[in-house]
Amino acid sequence: MPDLSAIVKAYDIRGVVGEQLDAAVTRALGAAFAKLVGGPSVVIGHDMRDSSPELSAAFAEGVTSQGVDVVSIGLASTDMLYFASGKLQLPGAMFTASHNPAKYNGIKLCRAGAAPVGQDSGLAEIRDWAQQGVPPVDGRHGSVSEQNMLADYAAYLRELVDLSGIRPLKVAVDAGNGMGGYTVPEVFAGLPIEVVPMYFELDGNFPNHEANPLDPANLVDLQRRVVEVGADAGLAFDGDADRCFVVDADGNPVSPSAVTALVATRELAKDPGGTIIHNLITSRCVPEIVEEHGGKPVRTRVGHSFIKQRMAETGAIFGGEHSAHYYFRDFWRADTGMLAAMHVLAALGEQDKPLAELTAEFCRYEASGEINSTVADQAASTEAVRAAYAGRDGVTFDELDGLTVDLGDGRWFNLRASNTEPLLRLNVEAPDAGAVAALRDEVLAIVRR
């Protein structure tokens, strides 16, 4: 058994197939997961990567070796696995490496009701038990049954957001050869939405571009197609289709912060006074707009386990991140890019304005996006930045997640260390693009010197 600490991350398991992750490893992880959750059953889904069927089958062998049954839902997006976990009230395992290149695969784990399993909530124990080996239990071997959840998943989403009465829309969708190519046709079938499909063929080798729409280079094809076909909007999904990015009719990306604010207003209209979670890198417009619509904004650290924990603690109705993860109380507090996209299309189709005009009210500030810098000493570089701003009037600091510096005049930035690489991640926001560029360059000069 290789050293599993190399592939067991803070929130999931991810590694290079054949080197770090193979059938023997996933079989051991399956047995350990079954030991953690205890049964009676575990639901398993997988993405379109070449290695996913074999690895998920081996994981199922590990689960059944502990006398625990398996419900296999086969091909699935990550949010479909969360749906299955919630609907069936079973712990779940999703085989995917999300947007990572083809040589990778991984596992996202959850307890019944899509409750997350991370390092502090069971993943460390799974790692240690799998490393040692979990012997089969005596007396009972679990069984494997198959259940296709696609139609139920689509029907459930359509109950949450009714698109049947909107004006006709043309929507270009870039699935990036990922699981969006499997889920979008079912979810949008029969609705007044003309889908212009891009890269819907399931192919875990990602022949057209990386399935990572957070990288602007991977949005270029969609931006061009939206303008070419005269679409009302464009949607780009990542590899496991749990994140969705939005493009307006002019081919311009709509920031995830604007999507967060838009969806928040719609959820608050249904549930006045509700709590909305946002991570500390989303635009300051998010808490402003939430308060203006009678809601209660709650700021949290970056990362799905923190968002879901705060949602559970506060009873929040919705949560959004700068990385285009969107969480819904009505979806077991799990993240689903599809449901967020449906909210955007509903808002667009319920009135006559173009998307750019509709979202303009949710775009109050300019932002840099995330900028990575390779540094030898993350702590020393961060401290140098703190020292540079410490003596200035009106400047405040907080350390909820990394270092956030608020200059008191509408300008602020966050500097966070990567958990897995020698990187510092910088995000800057200011009232205008010139102020963003100036502050960005000022901070980077300190970080990179």
From TrEMBL:
Does the keyword Phosphoprotein belong to this entry? Answer: yes
Q: Which cofactor does it need?
A: Mg(2+)
| Residue ranges occupied by any Alpha-D-phosphohexomutase alpha/beta/alpha domain in the UniProt entry | 8-126, 152-251, 259-362
Record-linked InterPro entries: A-D-PHexomutase_a/b/a-I, A-D-PHexomutase_a/b/a-I/II/III, A-D-PHexomutase_a/b/a-II, A-D-PHexomutase_a/b/a-III, A-D-PHexomutase_C, A-D-PHexomutase_C_sf, Alpha-D-phosphohexomutase_SF
The organism's superkingdom is given as Bacteria
Domain named Alpha-D-phosphohexomutase C-terminal: residues:
370-444
- Enzyme Commission number(s) of this protein: 5.4.2.8
Which of UniProt's keywords are assigned here? Isomerase, Magnesium, Metal-binding, Phosphoprotein
Alphabetized SUPFAM superfamilies for the sequence: Phosphoglucomutase, C-terminal domain (SSF55957), Phosphoglucomutase, first 3 domains (SSF53738)
**What is the name of the protein in this document?**
Phosphomannomutase
